[in-house]
Amino acid sequence: MATICPSPFTTTLHKSTSVLLSFHTSPFRKDIVHEGWGRPGTKYQGVYFRRALLNTIQRIDHLAHTLIPTHPPLKPHARMLLHFRFLIPLLPVDEDGLTPLHYYDSAIQVARNAEKELSEGEYEMGVRVGSEIEQTLQDCIAEMLAEQDSQSDSISRPRVSGEG
Description:
The chain is mainly α. It is built from five helices and no strands.
């Protein structure tokens, strides 16, 4: 029985093909734009929009649990409007009666379910409203901690006669 070994020429050809293929499909080439990736030379160079937007969910969920310790755990495919429904009263409302959470839910739904990749504009909108939600929650947490500090100061400080 004869053993078939690839010739050195065939091995070199396969390696060359692999190198060329990986070079031409690299998201970091300056002359090629890949759908769903940040364009080379911009602030989004090397950013995969879908993954980066979906990563914001964990940060917002962490802040929500800090603010509301009994906040339900995140389910893998839950709508953001449903999961963060307890935060809606804390968020600002625009002229259409929608909160940043409504827009964030839409962006996350597109990132999760769309067959096409996110555009730079869709990504920017999702990140912008996600940042608005994060900032609102951070402000609420800071206010809550400041109120706790002032309450603990008033409880621990002894009253001096003559204080009203």
